[in-house]
Design brief:
Blueprint (H helix, E strand, L loop, with lengths): L4 E7 L6 H13 L5 E7 L18 H8 L9 E5 L12 E5 L16 H6 L3 E4 L2 H9 L7 E3 L14 H10 L7 E5 L9 H12 L5 E6 L2 H4 L3 H11 L5 H5 L1 E4 L5 H10 L2 E4 L8 H8 L4 E4 L13 E4 L1 E5 L11 E5 L1 H9 L19 H11 L4
Parallel strand pairs: 1-2, 1-3, 3-4, 4-5, 5-6, 7-8, 7-10, 8-9, 10-11, 11-12
Antiparallel strand pairs: 13-14
Helix pairs in contact: 5-10, 6-8, 6-12
Amino acid sequence: MTHPFKLQVEGWRGISHSYALVNQFQLLEWAKSPHIQLSHLDKPFFFDNWGKTRNPAGLFEQDQALIDKLAPSDEFDGVFRIYSPFNLDPFPGKRVGVFMVTEFGLDVTTTPLQNIPQFVGEGGFIATPSRWSFERLVANGIPEAAIQIVPHSVDSRYFAPASAPTIQQQRQALGFQPHEVLLLNVGTQHWAKGMDLLLRAFAMARKVRKDLRLVLKDQRNTYSTNTEEFVVQTLKEHDLLSDEVIQAITMIPVNLSLSELNALYNMADAYVSPYRAEGYNLPVREALACLTPVIATRGGATDDFLAGPLVTQIGGVRHENHPLKQEIPVNAFIEPDLAELTARLLLSQRKPIPPESALSVQSDWSVATAAINQRLGLPA
């Protein structure tokens, strides 16, 4: 009888940071397999103030309990690391996988690239979620053969289309009128995410379309940034600040469970992400799982999965080897076309409510874990 493969995951869990969420959904998938004996070693969070009370993951109670009960082990056949800073140290006699994702390119001051030859030579591999991130890693000197593109996914138990009555009830609960067109973004204020462009485009479109509303998810509990201050400052800098525009913007300042986030995606008539650089962009993927139309940048990481009638892509100018703020090296980014973005917002309409037959979009993390399993040497 074949013994289960002893897999130890080293990473973050219990919080809503993207690395931790990816880790936790992969853990849930691995836990289903009778061929894997799973253990987990917690690594220090990037910020000391992160934790379950400040920015909880928002998973179902039974899923979080399953994840929480995983303990570290001294005996394992393979290791998968998913945290930051990246750790490329080989583990003697063990196959090691490391999750690495980058938006612009690697920060060589914190990534031990000198370990790459030994790491790869001893069978180590790197998992990255998109072609865009793959290209950035290669540009920083990591061999192509050492990198496995492992796309993220969504769990259809968490992110799925809602029925028309449910959407109507949820919109009413938050005070939105039936005729209003809701534009949503749940990203951070980081320059790469393009929230500044979204705010400018929305303010200009709102002058013409009084039915447009913008909903933003504040991320202060994770990144200690204040969305309200950012909104006012950005609009003021571009002479777009007015009471009317501010009143048309709704900010969600509290932590949301993933079920509540799913409700936001379903209420929205479009998810708008005019990003400059992304490693994957999970919110866009989650919005699509809810059959919510997406407006996003063309040419970046989301090109891997954006297609079909629900998708509108915004063109832009690609920049390479351009220093950001004269201090941060940037391998590549895309500057979205602000005029085109504004025009697309002006064309936004209430989304059609899908028929009941379409309310079962199936998606899970099995493809992601299968790709990692193969590189770790697990039997198929």
